[in-house]
Every structure is written in C-alpha cells, then in structure tokens.
Amino acid sequence: MGLSVVGLGIIGISVIFIILNATGEVTTDAVSILTGFSLGASSIALFARVGGGIYTKAADVGADLVGKVEAGIPEDDPRNPAVIADNVGDNVGDVAGMGADLFESYVGALVSAITLGLVATNIGSASHFMAALFPLVIAGVGIVASVIATFFVRGKDGSDPQKALNAGEYTATALVIIASAILSNTFFGNFNAFIAIIAGLVVGTIIGKVTEMYTSEKYK
Hints:
The protein is mainly α. It contains six helices and no strands. It folds into two domains: 1-119; 125-215, no CATH class.
C-alpha cells in the first residue's frame, strides 16, 4: 500500500506540474493551485479517517455485544452476521483511512517543498522552475530507491524480522543520499539542498531507532 500511496501522490502533483508548465503558469501564481490539491487530499483524509474510524468502532462494539454478551459465541465467529461488518470496518478504517492519511501527509510535504521553490528569492543560478522541480525528482528517486530496497528485505526461519526491515531501510537511505548529492549539484550547483536532505534522513532514522528502543522486546 505504501508504494501505491506515494505513487498516486506524485502522479497527481506531476500531472498538475506538467499542465502548469505547458501553459506557462509555473510561477508564484501556481502556489494556489498546488495548495488546492493539497487541501483536497486533506479533506478526503479527514472524511476517510474520521468517518471510517466511527464505522470501524461501531461495527466492532456492535459485533462484540451481539456475539459475546447476547449470543454467547466467541469473537469473530462466522455464525455472527455482524462479524462481516466488523471485518469491513477494519478495512475501511485501518486500511483505507490510513492510506488516505498517509496520502495527505505525503502530498502536503511535497506541495510545501514545491511552494518553497516557487517563492524562493535566493536560489543561486537555478530558476524557479528547477527549484520547484527538484522536490518532485527527489520524491521519484525515493520511490525507485524503495523498490530497489525491497529486494534486500530477506529473512530466514527464526531470524529477527527487524533486521530484514533495517536492511531495506538502510539500502533506500544510502541510495537517496547518493542520488540527492548528484541532483543537488546538478540543479543548483551546490550541496545546500543535499545538506537539508541529509538532515531529514538522519532525524527520521533517529526517530525510528528511538521508537524501536522503547517498543522492542530487545531493550529493557
């Protein structure tokens, strides 16, 4: 689902960006159009997350009350028709709702970066078009790096699954670091954007490690 979410997000923004470029509207006036796309993503995420969460919890509580309390049958028993609504609710809230939420976060971050490129006043020799295009290219590189990293997620019977996930994460991070250094020098003639990307990658990795430390059974 993760690759589908980011893929749809970058496709939507790229289509808008291509249309704006073809009509000569890749200027500061395009900010309102891009923010409109982000607002739409935020709205649908709100509806899917909140509405889906209400349905999910209502179906869950209803199925448990009818099954356990009134009929005296186990949870998720196929004899309880409300289990169907419970399972549908799990998909609506936990899958569709979370996907819409991630889509909104991804689109919001990408639109914010593009907006900074469009309104930047000190970008060196690069044009506003190149500055706005840079986040899209980095996002595309991230998707390609993630696809490549999936081939490094391998585990054996009895092995720690976290190690396999870490291998994929570190592989994708290394690929993005290399690509961002090249792209930053190509687009702007310096490594300022590369330094910002490195800072984000480092902070993201630290957050993941801190979360693992407080939640993994390997740490006390």
